[in-house]
Amino acid sequence: MVSTVSYQGRICRGCWDQMRMPVPIRGPLALPFRAVGITQSKMNPNICTICERSFRYVKKERHISATASILFADIRGFTQLSERLSPALLSDILSVFHGDCAKSIWAHDGIVNKQMGDGLMAIFNFPIKNERHAAAAISAALDIQRRCAAALKELTLRHGEVLAEGLGVGIGVHTGQVEIGEFSTLRSDFTAIGGTVNLTARLESQAAPGELLVSAEAAAAAPDIVTGATRMLNLKGIENPVLAHVLGRVQ
Ligand SMILES: [Zn+2]
Question: From ligand 1's centre to the CA of 148, what distance in Å?
């Protein structure tokens, strides 16, 4: 059996987990790969651009079904703020948010699959495999809340603006079956779609600033780290009320 230890940090973890193929992304062995355009992915520096862009080629299918945990995060109150804050401060807030989210997600082997202005979507368990993907997604979300709360305090001090009021990150985490593949004719990178992804986005839209809403399915997969209050939510487009565990901010 090939040991992964000797490769650690030097090969693409996505290609290794999905195909047992060692693709060098760091060190001298990575140079010829870099010369043909295979480099570290912006979704996660431990995966490569093959994983990101050659889904059909790698998987030999247009899309696959997989179990994954999905995380949606966005900055609550950003739209209202954008009317009264300077463009420089708004751009500072966005870059701190995206930077802190990426660090937290990568630390738990997730990928930042999409960035949408003041929000993002992350996938856990693809292409880097992780049996404890629900726990990883929840831990990443808690990290995001901690880092962003600290960053918000720091920005408030530096700019002398009252940012704390109504501003904070809202996050939703859910676990289930997703379809992963290349669904756009304009873009060649993969994403995840399906009911699990939609429900995660709906959960996130109900999270107050500083809050993390975890679905019952994700909570059941990570009982050791999910404690605390629950809330019944009526989500747009979803027939029955959905139970969510409320983590993050202590109200
Ligand atoms: Zn790869």
Answer: 30
